[in-house]
Amino acid sequence: MKAPRRSVAVAIGGVAVGGGRPPVVQAMTDTDTVDAVATAIQCKDLADAGAELVRVTVNTPKAAASVPKIRDRLDAMDCAVPLVGDFHYNGHKLLKKEPACAQALAKYRINPGNVGKGDARQENFAVMIEQALEHGKAVRIGANWGSIDEELLARNMDANARLKNPRDADAVMVRTLADSCLRSAAQARRLGLGDDRMVLSAKVSRVNLVIEAYRLLARRSDLALHVGLTEAGMGSRGVVASTAALATLLLEGIGDTIRVSLTPEPGARRTEEVTVAWQILQSLGLRHRTPQVTACPGCGRTTSIFFRELAASVQLRLNGKMKDWRARYPGVEKLNIAVMGCVVNGPGESRHADIGISLPGSGENPVAIVYADGARLTSLKGDGIAKDFEALVDAYVAKRFAPKR
């Protein structure tokens, strides 16, 4: 794994981004922003799940007028998560017309592809930057291949066609996304916005292309980067595609904020995208939010489903305890627990974990061996193995992570 790219540090509503820090997790609401109550509730739900920045759609005068109300409701719920305004087409008008909205947001998201056409493009962009300067806010310049700057793309395509060895259309598109971001960043600088108030992003829904787009941005600029695969999709497809893209970039040290753009299953909570983002960071060892439970997939040796039930029970219990544990036991989020189902890899995995249990598989003695810090701790038998092991985990956490007095 490469060291984090040393981007320019940016402060977004009290959240430190970039400057070599580990990536920050962002999420986005899908409520109607005009409904301040529903949007505030979802913002808090996302923040409680681990979102450190939450983006809301600001697309109409009523939505803009609702943003300060959302901020007030979050403050009343003791939720300080910074809000990011997602502007398209009319952001310059909304920010000027609703100064309370401009002040309540911590960052403005501007898409260079749809702030206007011709001369209006630069004029509208300038208005939004001026509002950021007036209110002391950060800006994300976020290009997206679904709403790319068509004029710039056409010029780049024409220039490419005149080359002796033209590149393919995808390569030109990727370059155009980077050009669009960097041209807008240059204009923002001319207007007085510092690099410490800018974040760039170049979103594509194809894994190979989004990786190339961010590699190009990382080579051409040291501005902070928000990375993610746009329109990742639903279910396992979205999770796998997002993980493939984000993991590749993060392992190369690219990415200061991340978002997993999942389409929720019908009736599912919006928080799944936050959970997946944190799992990616934890799996790469970049950040930790909850203890990890290592468990084997099961095979013919593990004819009982008990180890699966225990693994699920332990993970569920850990999730329920984390709010209290974070306050009482600093560092507990790095805890690793193993719940294994037979003698093949069970003892070894359990020794590698902080605390682990190797349950008996098919034909083995009905004894579960528990290991802690690489050494055998005890053995468990009978019908109370699950409760006994969970009690051992509680005792281990209290002993290892309690602050020194």
From TrEMBL:
Q: Where does [4Fe-4S] cluster bind?
A: 296, 299, 342, 349
Please list the cofactors this protein needs.
Answer: [4Fe-4S] cluster
GO MF, one term, reads:
iron ion binding
Biological process GO annotation list?
Answer: isopentenyl diphosphate biosynthetic process, methylerythritol 4-phosphate pathway; terpenoid biosynthetic process
Q: Which Pfam families match?
A: GcpE (PF04551), GcpE_C (PF26540)
Transmembrane ranges, per UniProt, are: none
Residue ranges of every copy of the IspG C-terminal domain listed in the record: 293-394
- Under Enzyme Commission nomenclature, its number is 1.17.7.3
- Pathway terms, separated by semicolons: Isoprenoid biosynthesis; isopentenyl diphosphate biosynthesis via DXP pathway; isopentenyl diphosphate from 1-deoxy-D-xylulose 5-phosphate: step 5/6
Origin superkingdom: Bacteria
Q: Where is the IspG TIM-barrel domain?
A: 9-278
Which keywords accompany this UniProt record? 4Fe-4S, Iron, Iron-sulfur, Isoprene biosynthesis, Metal-binding, Oxidoreductase
Q: How is the cofactor bound?
A: Binds 1 [4Fe-4S] cluster.
Q: Does the keyword Plastid apply?
A: no
The top EC class is oxidoreductase
**By its UniProt entry, which HAMAP family does this protein fall under?**
IspG
Q: What does this protein do?
A: Converts 2C-methyl-D-erythritol 2,4-cyclodiphosphate (ME-2,4cPP) into 1-hydroxy-2-methyl-2-(E)-butenyl 4-diphosphate.
| Protein family (similarity comment) | Belongs to the IspG family.
**Per its UniProt record, what PANTHER family does this chain match?**
4-HYDROXY-3-METHYLBUT-2-EN-1-YL DIPHOSPHATE SYNTHASE, 4-HYDROXY-3-METHYLBUT-2-EN-1-YL DIPHOSPHATE SYNTHASE (FERREDOXIN), CHLOROPLASTIC
Name of the protein described by the UniProt record: 4-hydroxy-3-methylbut-2-en-1-yl diphosphate synthase (flavodoxin)
Species: Candidatus Amphirhobacter heronislandensis
Lineage of origin = Bacteria, Pseudomonadati, Pseudomonadota, Gammaproteobacteria, Candidatus Tethybacterales
